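Supplementary Methods. Inverse-folding protocol.

Structures were first reduced to a discrete structure-token string of length 156. This string, shown here, constituted the complete conditioning input.
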């Protein structure tokens, strides 16, 4: 019986040990494991959220980059259009100024031509008057009249 009593004692001791372990040792271990499992799950969820946020951020960055490129293209196109408009306006202005300069020059030349003609008329009239005075001064002698007219013609 000794054997049975020893076996029975060991069984009782084991049962007390299991009961003590289940009551005092096992709950802190399961709590620690549950907390660790919860932290790991939260970490995985946070990593998944971070991955999702990173993907969204990358998509937004690509969208903003596309929009920026589109705006840059529009700005370049507008600048080129504005530049060609300015060049065209400058050409038109230069043509208009050229026309104005041409008109002013033509007007000035016309005025100078008229002045020269007027001066020439005055000189011709003066020469004719001087010739007439000389003719009258010599009393209209036919020989001297003919000589005087030839002389006036040579002067003109």
């Amino acid at each position: 019986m000794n054997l049975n009593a020893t076996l029975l004692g060991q069984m009782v001791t084991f049962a007390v040990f299991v009961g003590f372990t289940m009551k005092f040792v096992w709950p802190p271990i399961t709590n620690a494991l549950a907390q660790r499992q919860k932290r790991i799950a939260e970490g995985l969820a946070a990593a998944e959220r971070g991955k999702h946020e990173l993907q969204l951020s990358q998509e937004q960055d690509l969208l903003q980059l596309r929009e920026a490129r589109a705006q840059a293209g529009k700005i370049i196109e507008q600048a080129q259009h504005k530049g060609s408009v300015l060049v065209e306006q400058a050409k038109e202005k230069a043509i208009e100024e050229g026309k104005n300069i041409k008109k002013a020059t033509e007007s000035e030349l016309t005025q100078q031509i008229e002045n020269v003609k007027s001066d020439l008329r005055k000189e011709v009239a003066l020469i004719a008057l001087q010739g007439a005075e000389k003719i009258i001064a010599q009393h209209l002698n036919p020989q001297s009249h003919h000589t005087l007219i030839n002389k006036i013609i040579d002067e003109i």
